[in-house]
From TrEMBL, chain A:
<dbReference type="Pfam" id="PF05193">
    <property type="entry name" value="Peptidase_M16_C"/>
</dbReference>
<dbReference type="InterPro" id="IPR011765">
    <property type="entry name" value="Pept_M16_N"/>
</dbReference>
<protein>
    <submittedName>
        <fullName>Pitrilysin family protein</fullName>
    </submittedName>
</protein>
<dbReference type="Pfam" id="PF00675">
    <property type="entry name" value="Peptidase_M16"/>
</dbReference>
<feature type="domain" description="Peptidase M16 N-terminal">
    <location>
        <begin position="31"/>
        <end position="162"/>
    </location>
</feature>
<dbReference type="InterPro" id="IPR007863">
    <property type="entry name" value="Peptidase_M16_C"/>
</dbReference>
<dbReference type="InterPro" id="IPR011249">
    <property type="entry name" value="Metalloenz_LuxS/M16"/>
</dbReference>
<feature type="domain" description="Peptidase M16 C-terminal">
    <location>
        <begin position="186"/>
        <end position="358"/>
    </location>
</feature>
<dbReference type="InterPro" id="IPR050361">
    <property type="entry name" value="MPP/UQCRC_Complex"/>
</dbReference>
Length: 448, 430
């Protein structure tokens, strides 16, 4: 047989165009929509300025409890009737929250969008919040978190976050709260959070065939009865770096792998280095071909996968690496990961690596932004970060234009291998001595 | 409601070497999905070689005749694409989604590893990927609470010798003895053009794709003696329930109730799909209403039911619930089995049926909303049912299922004697 040896080059480029964006002010709220001609499915998403960053310290997780309590009955109907009404349309109420926003959405065939948005608004604006239901939902959420925290990862994440940002700050505590904070919430915490943040109009995001959609009518439904203006969101938070590296050991007796979380603070989302930082993170740990995955997985076989990236919200950011490695290689995996971070900080990136990283990031914009759900997510980014309609087109250009010097400079400035916190969640009795012997930093046992 | 679940064009051809090519053009976005289904999965693995089909999948990313180690990923990501592969009991599939101008690159890479993997396969690569897969097993099955439930359910449902008896991830012992010659033979045996379907969906014209397929894959030889997997279509009833109770480091009691139903793609399995949605999808489902909301013995986020879409034997239907604090495994198990039993005795109402069909319709269109989602199902239908156009029949078939058919299937297949029950108990309460 004869295989063709030469790698084919690309054909004529077919540029990606982000769908046409429509912005309107209706009934005191904002509407941001994308037109997807011919698409049978549509997504409507109500975006509220009620992210975890709005939760009072010590009330961590109140937004998650409220999200579940929204479906425990409304002014018009009980929980069962609500579930049957919304599921009869073929959708479920999908809620989500991050540091900057709370999102609640429906995804339905476009002809049912209006009915689905009515039900969405009914739950968000007029939930029953019966005290007995709220207490039960709180207990269920605490149990769900306890179940989740039995998996490797959440405890390591919490230890890293607390060490980076300080557990006295809301942003130094887990985004969804922890089993104890959620168990300690009372009914008033939930109802007050609702009246403070869920009555403001917010922004209605719509992705779908707008020729079959009445945006004004949807908005009137979503914003009916809402009131109150936007609230100051606060500027970027200065987070100091640690003076020296440290290892935090989170004991998980009997673990057959060590869960690794390495990190340090990094700039907020609007920082001018956002694009070169993203590319430096991509070369180091953001893709399968990255330095970390290549060395730790493909050369050493220590892990199923290792990833690293810069992530940022409006007020703060962090660089973090995560992986799970078998017990016996915990120490060498950690040493080699720190080595790759250091090498990237000191020597930057090569043109070959950067070529892959920038094409990949740019190409993903056209490859991933297809479904109504993903387009709605992209519109959400525009709103949360105050970005213009042509943001995605401009992002593509700036990704493709970033050169080696810019990316190396971003790596040099924003990677801090000497300030890393190295969290290891694993069988402490098995791995402690080897961690001490690495000399990477003082080993501290996590107290919890 | 449309008459078809697939309102896009489908064109097919077959190369002289037997490779089937399916193209579905859609110029909405300048991207193409390329998907290869190979008709080989863990059901083909003999005793002592469990996990080999999946480990082999990993080796397909490590270089081939004209592609050096690490280049496969680098070329696709350098073109702005994403890629992956999955192995299950039935089949192995490999897929890329790339900006449309890089279609030819994706076809070249797929052809090179279909026709030229063996010369590039080394002991070093095998040893490295064996360790990666063992870490995958640790991470996904061993180091998480209830992580081994699927590994335990399969042997309860399927007897030794049945192609679904063992899980795709395989055993550590078998993975440890995997040798290079076995994998070279595995490729030669199964990775032939006449054992595969190439599907391209998106911004590409069928004649162009057919010509490129012939250019890159046309010279690869067919193989005429591809061995089939053991026949798994019938599973003799034992007349006795299968029961296993595990005491492990888990945070709460959990129960799985599983049954063998019909193969995916049959009218019987369409009934199973709707039945599973009535039983266990959403807050309006019977399990949620009865166990999470009504009696409040199950944790709301962890109650549900689903079918596992396997096509070469009676596919599993699994219902599961996890106890709320203070609820015993026994009470939870009784509650769960009562709800399953009632599918045969308490008729499904029109509202329940409409709810399930509405949810299934949205799920279907969501899957169809991306070119990669469409490519995967077209590949499945061409591979398993011989005709990708049959994809259009699935959604209408779900929507035609009746309450009587659900009650009949429940009476026929979901009885106590045909039930596998797996219970996890936390260590401290044992």
């Amino acid at each position: 047989m004869t295989l063709i040896a030469a790698r084919p080059g690309p054909g004529a480029a077919r540029p990606y165009r982000f769908p046409q964006v429509v912005r309107r002010t209706v009934a005191g709220g904002q509407v941001v929509a994308a037109h997807l001609p011919g698409q049978n499915l549509a997504v409507a998403l109500l975006l509220l300025d009620a992210g975890a960053g709005r939760e009072p310290v010590g009330r961590d997780g109140v937004g998650g409890v409220l999200a579940k309590a929204l479906e425990e009955g409304t002014a018009q109907r009980d929980a069962t009737a609500y579930a049957l009404a919304i599921e009869a349309l073929g959708t479920e109420l999908v809620t989500g929250l991050d540091w900057d926003s709370f999102q609640v959405s429906v995804q339905v065939p476009v002809e049912r969008l209006s009915a689905a948005v009515e039900l969405l608004a009914e739950a968000v604006r007029t939930p029953r919040l019966d005290p007995a239901d709220v207490r039960r939902v709180r207990d269920d959420e605490a149990t769900a978190l306890r179940m989740d925290w039995a998996n490797p990862g959440p405890r390591a994440d919490a230890a890293l976050r607390a060490d980076l940002f300080g557990a006295d700050n809301r942003w130094g505590r887990p985004m969804y709260g922890d089993p104890e904070t959620v168990a300690g919430l009372d009914v008033d915490d939930v109802t007050v959070f609702h009246s403070e943040w869920f009555i403001r109009p917010g922004t209605l995001i719509v992705a779908g065939d707008l020729e079959r959609t009445d945006l004004d009518a949807l908005a009137a439904t979503a914003f009916a009865g809402a009131g109150g203006g936007p609230v100051e969101r606060g500027g970027p938070i200065e987070v100091p770096l640690h003076e020296r590296r440290r290892i935090i050991l989170v004991d998980r007796p009997g673990s057959v792998q060590s869960t690794l979380r390495l990190g340090h603070p990094s700039p907020h989302r609007a920082h001018p280095d956002h694009v070169p930082m993203t590319l430096a993170g991509t070369v180091l740990g953001g893709a399968f071909t990255s330095r970390l995955n290549h060395l730790i997985r493909e050369v050493r076989g220590y892990t199923y996968g290792i990833r690293g990236d810069f992530a940022s919200s409006r007020r703060f950011g962090r660089f973090a690496v995560s992986s799970g490695v078998q017990n016996a290689v915990t120490a060498p995996a950690l040493v080699e990961a720190v080595g790759e971070i250091t090498r990237t900080q000191v020597t930057g990136v090569t043109e070959d690596e950067l070529a892959v990283a920038r094409s990949w990031r740019a190409g993903q914009l056209s490859v991933e932004l297809q479904s109504p759900r993903s387009i709605a997510g992209a519109l959400t980014t525009l709103v949360v970060h105050d970005l213009p309609d042509d943001y995605h087109a401009r992002l593509r250009e700036s990704l493709l234009a970033a050169d080696v010097d810019q990316v190396a400079a971003a790596a040099a400035t924003h990677l801090h291998p000497e300030s890393l916190t190295l969290v290891v969640e694993g069988d402490a009795a098995v791995v402690r001595d080897e961690l001490v012997a690495t000399g990477l930093g003082e080993v501290v046992d996590h107290q919890h | 409601m449309p008459d078809s679940g697939y309102p896009w064009p489908i064109e097919t051809t077959r190369l002289d070497n037997g490779l089937r090519v399916v193209v579905s053009e859609d110029r909405t976005a300048p991207a193409v999905a390329v998907n290869l289904w190979y008709d080989v999965g863990s059901r083909h693995e003999p005793a002592g070689q469990t996990g080999f089909a999946h480990l082999f999948e990993h080796l397909m990313f490590e270089g081939s005749a004209n592609v050096a180690k690490t280049e496969h990923m680098k070329f696709i990501q350098g073109a702005g694409g994403s890629l992956n592969a999955t192995t299950n009991p039935d089949r192995t599939n490999y897929f890329e989604m790339v900006p449309a101008e890089h279609l030819e690159l994706a076809l070249w890479l797929e052809a090179d590893r279909m026709g030229g993997l063996v010369p590039a396969l080394t002991q070093e690569t095998l040893d490295n990927q064996r360790e990666v897969v063992k870490n995958e097993r640790r991470q996904r099955y061993e180091n998480v609470p209830y992580g081994d439930s699927w590994l335990r359910l399969l042997p309860l449902l399927y007897p030794p010798g049945h192609p679904y008896h063992h899980a795709t991830i395989g055993s550590m012992a078998d993975l440890n003895v995997a040798d290079l010659a076995t994998f070279q033979a595995f490729h030669t045996t199964y990775y032939a053009p006449n054992n595969a379907v190439l599907t391209v969906v998106g911004d590409a014209e069928p004649p162009e794709v057919f010509a490129l397929a012939d250019k890159y894959f046309g010279a690869i030889s067919a193989r005429d003696d591809i061995p089939s997997a053991p026949d798994g279509r019938t599973v003799p009833a034992t007349g006795r329930p299968a029961v296993e109770t595990v005491t492990a480091d888990v945070p709460a009691p959990r129960v799985y109730v599983a049954h063998r139903t019909h193969p995916y793609g049959t009218p019987g399995y369409d009934v199973t799909t709707v039945l599973a949605t009535v039983l266990g999808t959403g807050r309006g489902s019977r399990l949620y209403q009865r166990l999470a909301d009504g009696e409040r013995i199950a944790q709301p986020d962890l109650v549900g039911a689903y079918g596992v879409d396997l096509a070469h034997g009676p596919a599993p239907l699994i219902a599961t619930a996890t106890a709320r604090p203070g609820v015993t495994a026994e009470r939870l198990r009784t509650g769960l089995t009562d709800v399953v039993d009632e599918l045969a005795t308490v008729p499904v109402t029109a509202a329940e049926l409409d709810r399930a069909k509405a949810l299934l319709s949205t799920q279907w269109w969501r899957h169809m909303s991306t070119v990669d989602g469409r490519a995967d199902v077209l590949g499945r239908y061409a591979t398993q049912f011989g005709d990708p156009a049959k994809i259009g029949e699935r959604l209408p078939a779900w929507l035609a299922v009746t309450a009587e058919q659900i009650a009949e299937q429940a009476a026929e297949l979901l009885g106590a004697a045909d039930r596998a029950t797996l219970t996890y108990l936390p260590e401290e309460t044992s």
